[in-house]
Structure formats: structure tokens, C-alpha cells
Design a protein that fits this description.
9 strands; mainly alpha; Fumarase C, Chain B, domain 1; about 525 residues; Fumarase C, Chain A, domain 2; about 5% strand; about 50% helix
């Protein structure tokens, strides 16, 4: 299973990476995505209040230890071992042991974009100033991002509370010079890479191992990437609905703004307006049916659920992104230690479980639209399976027949994966972690559903373009007839990647290419 997609380097208009300042402002989903897709570096804010907050937390923690106060995870064991005191002469070794015994992750490694997103999320959380970590640790996380020193993080092994302990141990290990990283496209020991960059491995401070690992950075990072991809899919799905409607000679009135004014869900109205604008105001032919089938007529209602859900998901993802989510909280200004459970990833888990369902519904919608397009009983005069073969060759050509079967398979798998992960809490760690979020598993599931749905979208993109070009040919109409200029331009862009299908050919490479282009958000839509 692919957890994300490889980082896609994309330069800004000036050809330079932009800089995202960390520490004095809220980070957005778009900021995380910019780091993940390598269009941005990070820099710590020079804001005086920010730097003072970081240093106060460290100084306060040092005073507590000097006075013999008990602080969980600093001079005690971890988790259920919190009642075990750690002798003063062993305190310095405790963070290293935490990172080492959690080095037991399995499964595929997170790809580059996801790893960069994890580093950005952990840096931003620690930069809130309530984790008792040194400025130098924040600098090292920024250096890992900016030098693209990417810890090899196994995807599996987190139950989402106490945060993403096992996967984040690979970040801690990279900082201390242990385990392997990906750098300049090659897997290498991190100690060698740090030496090449002129950086020495760090010795973690008393709470720094716990601060790095005891948080929600992995699930939050994956959620940011999932949100961006899902948002793009809602736009693409609207565009493809308009194309399918025109190809099927559907009724533009189903998307009339006056109709949607009486049911004021914002996302539904937004999608309907996009579809309405994509269909030419004066169609060459009258609609074939007074009311189109639901996968066309109700598309804004399906897409609108996802659009509206994305609004509250942004709120919750960005609140998690901009939170201090480890334990304990070290407040250097108020000079207090607060023990709690901010590592619990419930908000991310619920958002990702909900997004799974919303995205899978997009897959199902597009699968049904594709089924209408290829079936001559329902496509109102288009050739069977959208084959472009002329009459003399039609008997041996099968067009998109197998692609439709594949689309059905991808959709079925996406729908199967919508089972919520957050309800499968498992009691772990001697029943200390007896209620956990499963947020990282939910996010991984969501990314897999997105991957499958992008494959469905790729198939429908090729199929809808073929259908429009067939309609032009069969009715001897002008190119782009029935669609707005932006849609005609979009169809032309797709044709450059996938030529008109007259004689059967293997479409795998074109489908893979189209899926990649969709995942990267290649086309500006609306």
C-alpha cells in the first residue's frame, strides 16, 4: 500500500523556494503541503517573544530537576512505568533509550512528501513553546527539512496515543545520529549524512526524546496531505460531472443556481455552480431526458457533502497542527508542569474516518458516471464502451470495456476501506494506554482510499474526454461544443497525454500518468 506519493518538486514562479516562518504565526495545511512538495523551506521566527518562550521553558525545567522535583518522562520511567524513579546519574541516558526501544516499526516507509510533512508538523508543535525543548533542537529539525535529510519512517506501529511514538522515534534517532535516512535519493546512515553536512549528532536534553515522539505529528502530516488531495478531487469531480452530462446530452437545468438557492448547503451550491458554468449556456441539442439519472443529477449533493466536511476538517487539522500535543506540558511563563493527554489524536482520527467516507462516495459517483458513458443502453447514442473504431473495425475493438471493470474494482476496494478505524481502540502498554485514537491508521486508510479514488478519476477523465470527442465526431459538431471554453481547454490538455482511442491499446501507462497528474493537482480548476 502506498501511504502517500513521492515528493513532487515544483518551483515557484521566481524559481526560488519560498520560506515558511515557524514560531510566531499559525501554520496552515497549505504550508505543510508546500514543505512536503518542496516548494518551501522553513525558518525559525526571530520574534523575541517566541525565542524567550522557548528558552524560559528549558530554564524552568532545569530548575525543577536541580530542585529534585518529579517530572514524568524526565526523571521517571515512561507510560505504565511512570512510578519508577530514574536515578540522577541515568537521567541523561533516558531519552536515548526511549528512541531505541521504539525502533520497531514495520510496513512500508513513508514516502518523501509524507516524511517532510511529518518533520514540519513536529517542528511546529514543539515551536509552540510548551514542550521544554532547546532552541537547538528546533534548529536541527529545520535543518533536516531544509537539507532534505529524511528519516526512514515505517508506516505501521502507532495506535495514535501516546501519539505516534514508534514512527516518531525514527525522527529522534536521526537527530542523535542513529538509523538510516534518505538523502539525495539514496538510503544512507544518518551519521554519514550529518558529517557530510558539517552537523554533529545531538545529545537529547532531559525531555527532548519524549517531546519529539509523544505527539500527533505523523497522523497530522498525513491528514494535511489527505485534505489537499480530497479538496482537489471535489473540484475535478465537478469538472468531470459537467463533461459526462454534456456527453450524455443531459439537462443543464439540474444545476441551475435558482434550484440550489432553496437548499443552502454551501459546498453543494458551490459544486452546482461550477458544473453549471462548465456546461455551455446554449447546448446544440435538447436534453435526452427530463430528469437525468442520479449520478448526474445529484452529483452536487454528493460532492457538496465532501466540500462542506472539508471546512470543519480544516479547522480540526489546523488546530492539531498548531497545538502542543505532547506530555507533560512545560509552561515556562507560568512556571508549572501540566500532566495530561494531549497526545491523543481523536480529532484527526474522526476527521480522517469521515474523509474516508466522503472520498469513497466520490469514487462511487464517478464509477456510476463511467458506467453510464460506456453502456449503449444508457449513453444516448455513443458507441458501446466508447470505442472509436469505425464500423468495419468495431467488431474486434472493445474500447474502455476493461477500464470500466477496473474502475469498479477500485471503487469496491475504496468502499470496503471506509470502516472507521477510530472505533477499534485497543488497550496497550499494560493497560496504561487503554483507550487510544487509532488516528494514524485512519489517516493511512484515507490515503489509500484517495489513491483508489484518484485511479477512478483518471479512468473517468480519459473516458469523459473520449465521450466528448466521440460526440463531436458522431454529430459532426465543433470541438468543444456544449462545454465552456475552460472545459474545452481541459479536454485538449488531457488529449496531449492520452490520444483518441480508435484501435484498442493497453491503457495502463496512460492511466498511471493521469493518476499521477491528478494526485499532483496539475490543473487549475475553478
Amino acid at each position: 500500500m502506498t501511504i502517500g506519493s513521492p515528493a513532487v518538486p515544483r518551483q515557484t514562479a521566481t524559481g526560488k523556494l519560498r520560506t515558511i516562518e515557524v514560531g510566531a504565526r499559525r501554520m496552515t495545511i497549505e504550508d505543510v503541503v508546500a514543505v512536503a512538495t518542496e516548494v518551501a523551506h522553513v525558518a525559525l521566527s526571530p520574534d523575541a517573544a517566541f525565542t524567550a518562550r522557548i528558552r524560559k521553558g528549558v530554564a524552568y525545567l532545569e530548575r525543577l530537576l536541580d530542585s529534585g522535583e518529579i517530572v514524568y518522562g524526565v526523571n521517571t520511567g515512561y507510560g505504565d512505568s511512570c512510578t519508577v524513579p530514574v536515578p540522577p546519574h541515568l537521567i541523561a541516558e533516558l531519552p536515548l533509550h526511549l528512541s531505541r526501544y521504539h525502533g520497531c516499526g514495520l510496513g512500508e516507509y513513508l514516502p518523501e512528501d509524507a516524511t517532510l510533512a511529518v518533520l514540519a508538523c513536529r517542528l511546529n508543535s514543539l515551536a509552540q513553546g510548551y514542550s521544554g525543548v532547546r532552541w537547538e533542537l528546533l534548529e536541527r529539525l529545520a535543518q533536516l527539512i531544509n537539507h532534505r535529510v529524511l528519516p526512514l519512517i515505517p508506516a505501521e506501529g502507532s495506535v495514535g496515543a501516546s501519539g505516534d511514538l514508534t514512527p516518531l522515534s525514527y525522527v529522534a534517532a536521526a537527530i542523535v545520529g542513529e538509523r538510516d535516512v534518505l538523502h539525495k535519493g539514496a538510503r544512507q546512515p544518518v551519521a554519514r549524512v550529518l558529517a557530510e553536512l558539517g552537523l554533529a549528532p545531538m545529545t537529547l536534553g532531559p525531555k527532548e526524546g519524549l517531546a519529539i515522539m509523544n505527539g500527533t505529528a505523523v497522523m497530522t502530516a498525513l491528514a494535511c496531505l489527505a485534505w489537499r488531495r480530497a479538496e482537489y478531487l471535489t473540484r475535478l469531480c465537478s469538472r468531470l460531472t459537467a463533461m459526462a452530462a454534456v456527453a450524455l446530452r443531459g439537462n443543464r437545468g439540474h444545476f441551475d443556481p435558482r434550484l440550489f438557492a432553496v437548499k443552502p448547503h454551501a459546498g453543494q451550491n458551490e459544486s452546482a455552480a461550477w458544473i453549471y458554468g462548465d456546461i455551455a449556456a446554449v447546448a446544440q441539442n435538447e436534453p435526452m431526458r427530463l430528469q437525468d439519472r442520479y449520478s448526474i443529477r445529484c452529483a452536487p449533493h454528493v460532492i457538496g457533502v465532501a466540500r462542506d466536511a472539508l471546512t470543519w476538517m480544516r479547522r480540526d487539522i489546523e488546530n492539531e497542527l498548531n497545538s502542543a500535543n505532547d506530555n507533560p506540558i512545560i509552561d515556562g511563563d507560568a512556571e508549572c508542569v501540566l500532566h495530561g493527554g494531549h497526545f491523543y489524536g481523536g480529532h484527526i482520527a474522526f476527521a480522517m474516518d469521515a474523509l474516508k467516507t466522503a472520498v469513497a462516495n466520490l469514487a462511487d459517483l464517478m464509477d456510476r458516471q463511467f458506467a453510464l458513458l460506456v453502456d449503449s443502453k444508457f449513453n444516448h447514442g455513443l458507441p458501446e464502451n466508447l470505442s472509436g473504431a469505425r464500423a468495419g473495425r468495431a467488431a474486434i475493438n472493445h474500447g474502455f470495456k476493461a477500464v470500466q471493470i477496473g474502475t469498479s474494482a477500485w471503487t469496491a476496494e475504496a468502499l470496503k476501506l471506509t470502516m472507521p478505524a477510530s472505533v477499534f481502540s485497543r488497550s496497550t502498554e499494560c493497560h496504561n494506554q487503554d483507550k487510544v485514537s487509532m488516528g494514524t491508521i485512519a489517516a493511512r486508510d484515507c490515503l489509500r482510499i484517495l489513491e483508489l479514488t484518484e485511479q477512478v478519476a483518471a479512468a473517468l477523465t480519459l473516458g469523459a474526454c473520449q465521450a466528448l470527442r466521440l460526440r463531436e465526431r458522431e454529430e459532426n459538431s465543433a470541438a468543444g461544443a456544449g462545454v465552456a471554453p475552460a472545459v474545452a481547454q481541459f479536454v485538449g490538455a488531457i488529449a496531449a497525454h492520452s490520444p483518441f482511442l480508435d484501435e484498442d491499446r493497453a491503457l495502463e501507462s496512460e492511466l498511471r500518468s493521469m493518476t499521477h497528474l491528478i494526485r499532483a493537482g496539475t490543473w487549475e480548476l475553478y
